[in-house]
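Worked example

This section walks through a single chain of length 175. The input is the sequence exactly as stored; nothing has been trimmed or padded.
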Amino acid sequence: MVATHLFRSRDQLLLFCSSIFSGLANGFVGDFTSAYISCPYGIQNVGFVMITLGVSQSIFSVVYGKINQYIGHIAIFTFGSMTHASFYITLLLWNPLPNQSYIVHVLAAIAGISGAAIEPVITALHNLYFAEKRDIALSSFRLLNSIGWAISFGYSNWLCSNVKMYILIGLLLMS
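Given that input, the structure is written out below as tokens.
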């Protein structure tokens, strides 16, 4: 039932890239921690940086929920996409230096801000577009999200972080 819904629904096909991107972006967090935190600044800093990401994502989930009624889903998704793109572009251009450990906290906060915008909005769009088939649509979203996670896991040892970021930017632009 989910598979037929995935490929027959025009609206679901329009949300296809966004759903895959959500899983890939979540999978990239492991690459972020290994390439930009544990290698240059030590594994002891990973937890503190991830706390920064989690706190910013929690705070901005509440903020986006409050302002959604005034600006709408599309504005929040656009802002989240722009912050995601700026996060990846910054990582591509930035070369970690020993005295710049605070920058990974700022980048983690930006990742949390953008993550708080993307996945809830995609879920809300599935709820809005498929009110009569909500269970199937949300199952389709979770399936595509999990496929994104699996793809991220599958290529994690084969691709460099910069190639992964180019893939994420490309998929973000498509979505």
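What to look for: Residues 2-174 form a domain with the Growth Hormone; Chain: A; fold (CATH 1.20.1250).
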